[in-house]
Structure prediction request, 1319 residues.
Amino acid sequence: MLSALSLGNNAYCLKVFSCINESLTISVDVLFGILINIIRMKQASRRNSSMEESLLFGEMDIDNQYRSNPGVLARFWNVMTFRSINLVMEHGSKKQLDFDDLLQLPTDMDPIFCHDTLLNCWEDQRRHDCSHPSLFWTICYAYGWPYMCLGLLKVLNDCLGFAGPLLLNMLIKYLQKGSGNFDGYLLAISLGFTSILKSFLDTQYTFWLSKLKLKLRSGLMTIIFKKCLHVSLAERSKFSEGEIQTFMSVDADRTVNMSNSFHDMWSLPLQIGIALYLLYTQVQFAFVAGITITILLIPVNKWIAELIASATKNMMEQKDERVRRTGELLTYIRTLKMYGWELLFTSWLMKTRSLEVKFLSTRKYLDAWCVFFWATTPTLFSFFTFGLYVMMGNQLDAATVFTCLALFNNLISPLNSFPWVINGLIDAVISTRRLSKFLSCSEHESHNGQKDNSSSSSSNFTDENMDIIMKDVCSSWSSSDSEVKELILNHVNLDIPNGSLVAVIGEVGSGKSSLLNTILGEMNLTKGFIQSSGSVSYVPQIPWILSGTIRDNVIFGKDYDPRRYSDVLEACALDTDVSLMVGGDMAYIGEKGLNLSGGQRARLALARAVYHGSDLVMLDDALSAVDAQVASWILSKAILSPTMNHKTRVLCTHNIQAIFAADIVVIMEKGQVKWVGSPSECSSSSYASFVKPEELNSSYSETQVESEDTFMEVQERVATESECIDIIDTTDNIIRAEERKEGRVETTVYMNYAAFSGWYITVITCLSALLMQASRNGNDLWLSYWVDTTAFEKHPTSFYLVVLSIFCLANSFLTLVRAFSFAYGGLRAAIQVHNNLLKKLVDAPVAFFDQTPSGRILNRLSSDLYTIDDSLPFILNILLANFVGLLGIALILSFVQVMFLLLILPFWYIYSKVQFYYRSTSRELRRLDSVSRSPIYASFSEILDGSSTIRAFKCEEFFLARFIEHVKMYQKTSYSEIIASLWLSLRLQFLAAFVVSYIAVMAVIGSHGYLPINLGTPGLVGLALSYAAPVVSLLGSFLTSFTETEKELVSVERVLQYMNIPQEEHQGRIILDAIWPSQGQIEFRNVTLKYMPSLPPALRDLSLTIAGGTQVGIVGRTGAGKSSIINALFRLNPICGGSIIVDGVNVADVSLRDLRSRFAVVPQIPFLFKGSLRENLDPFNLNDDSKIWKALEKCHIDDEVREAGGLNMQMKESGTSFSVGQRQLICLARAFLKSTMVLCLDECTANVDTHTASKLKDAIASECRGLTVITIAHRISTILHMDNVLILDQGILVEQGNPQILVQDESSRFSSFAKASSM
Prediction:
């Protein structure tokens, strides 16, 4: 008997030692393999280093190499334990981190390297599959091999995960036998050692996978950005702007997250297979009952995953549309406030948001079912498995039960992860297809290049002297793969000789801008041939201003030449402006030039074109935004200057002086070139109406213009001084630096989120989670009681099963309550946050938007809101589950293992210190992450507007380099964040491994009777050990989810910053009559207006009276304060002193929206939005079609509207279906439809030809008779017929009177303006 027992023990020992031996062998092999790979990487980096370093290493002798080995081992240990982050962690615990404190990127993670890698693979893919290149296969070619190698590490890691349950089984059997040898200690220590080894493998796999994901993200972002730089406007038209922005913000991230899902697709079945086999060894075929329940849920999970995919696709479409509408709202917020339409646009945006939320709620409730199945499956699995096992006539023991429970945990997670994995893969597939479609777009083809004379026998001397040759050119705004619905340019033939000044003229919508865009390659060339030679400069009709300094905008990536730079500023009348700016030419210009006047933006864009000194200069209506005197100066000093005389200049214009200064005049009509000749021939041709004789004063010849140079210089000095006062000095901190909180996420952020979710739902969720965990622990305690009492046969088996079933039902019900209450709370919070944020933004004053880039605001409403919609509820749910899980483990361990209480205090002390040390750095890194992300989206949004200008100047590489710098900062932050997270994870898992070993050793000691207290029955000891094992993952998961929650809550924190922005005062002290204003009398009484408290006033103690029913013109140099009068009248900016009285009512006492709705305005920059033309003209649907057509007829735009498709035609974004001039006419028609006594026109004829301007002048004179009309004008002819004219200078009224009388007075200022414009 004794010998048999001894043989059994020896066999058992051999089995244990063989298991330990295999574990050690595997671990040594793994560590050796990792060491070899690190040495290979180091050697590869040395081979790539400089020749000098190679020689130095070559001279090292064997002794030196031997002595260097400890350095290699030290570096290996640093990589394994992530010690490189220690310095960052130390700084983070003491101070606010800055970008300089972050880790340096490895060479292979540099965004340039990542961009080149992915782009080369994409180009290869396009060459092999020209019709349908796949981004998925591109990613496989770029990163497939290292990704597959990581798969081997994952196999090892997954297999090692099963060592824990096996060792647990051996240990419980050992404890049941009560053997006195030391095998138990070996098993107990092996449990801890296995946990430590798995920790190393787990963190290394995550580290290398995260590095790969960062490389992929960087590569995707840069190639999307590069594609936007190279895709023409016509080709890009098949994507909305919101959709393109979503490519960068959402689709790139989803494609990157595919890296996790692909390994899980094969890893999860592997884990399931091993777990099932091990279960079979424990309970034979009884596990089939549990697995049947789980397998039956797989088709359900698949069906749910398909529904989630459909909901996600629909949600993303609505999200694209919402982001587009949000961008539109933010871009035109000033104009919308003037119209009083901000609430209307908000309601349209809210409709889109409600559809997005509808699909989001479908997804969230489906997710709740997934959570329910995931959380209840372990309990159901154990119930059915053990129930069947007992019914088969077997007896439960502690080793079988708790080994199975450990295996259930290993099995359930892979089974229930499948829907999430499939969901992630479906998201990734949808995103990769969307990105593939965008990246496959045809790229911009420049018609610019040197002509090859040898290639064509027809080339002759005439062609050699031509800079632009167009032969039978037809072009449209449709993309290359879509049907051409309308030709914009129709069979155009045009030759432009070298060094000539060409004036392109024609009515509004005749195709002038389209001609330039076709030459630049921005339109789709459907027929014909275009050839241009030399470098190109381009000034678009709406100047594109870069966020940055004045100098950045002028040199635009070119080398800085101080002499040339100074000459250009003077020639473009910018020198005095710059000298008066705070910071000079290094003054910061806000997004889209928001802190510059319209004239300054035009002159800055012109200065850029002149500075570049290109062979071909294209100017699209560059003189319309400046007054006549400045236009004359620019024409003589810049466009006609000696340095520009030998350049070919194509100028689309309505300026008479420019037309008569041109060498060639090109007249366009309905997309065709109707006439080409000299200006003098034009005057005597059938097209003489384009150059009105009455606007031409022959006494002002070119000579006289030159003689007025001195006068112009004096006037320019006065003008620029006043100009700077208008808005420009707000460069002094006009753009506020993005705020970044310090320290931990405040409790108020948690409280606010709970309030958004609803306090009652928060309480229900927390309570159901606690009760759910209690039922789960009760279930396990009951199993422990069962195995301990089954030998005594206290109760029948049915009794145990009934109680177990009660626990199962309770657990299932409570899990369902928790899952759906969490989904409901998350949705409620998402709705509340968006609605509150949008309301706060819409009610914010214009000054807020002037000081905050729209990209920064859009970041809150896209990325941050996406986090609050989706990521934050998900991670909060995990946090809550981990918290109640840990609480349950702590209580159970304290109950069944008294010795655990000795460990709680020191363990909690170490744990709290480690997590506090980490969290302080983690928060800072997350905030840096958010701050570094904003410039990426801001610059991306910016280049979407200015891509045609960038392409014309051939500055794509310069802007790509700037963007790569932004991505590099983002990459550095993310890299540091990942390593910090893994640093923590590894150390926590070490702690958890110690806890497992401690409890196991205590159990062994207790079984030997070395302790004065009893440590429980085998069932309770088994329960304690099975609960101690998950501590490894659960502790790390808890802190990870906690820190991730804090990180995600930074999005809530950032949104809350905008919940406290200043608000406009919308409440009025008086209620207006329905007919107010009935007379339209406007009186300014000592009005002073400042744009910022520290700046000089834009209006200085201004007093004036505009009689009701009169038409008044306001004249002054660019920035003299003309627009400030309208700003003050509409209360866009609050006045500092004085009052404005309209029909006896102080406008300060009137509700803001009510006030703005009583006035009509036509803004300087025309505003049209995506939607039907009818919606654009009459969004409130107050007028019938006949009245709308009548308004369009008055504005001479009715024929063009009929040709375009009538009132129901769908407008493109920003109204690009029409030219800028046509857009202004549509805006004027919109103003005519509004029944009001006060009409404000801000440069409404600046972009229309003189013929149309004359018709509009007559229309305004006749249709607005009896109305008060305030017109800001640079074209003097449009205000000569008016009742009164006001001349402003430096915000002061310097002259007023009847324009017909003032024009005759040679000494009047108005006369000098009139003379300058009579050209």
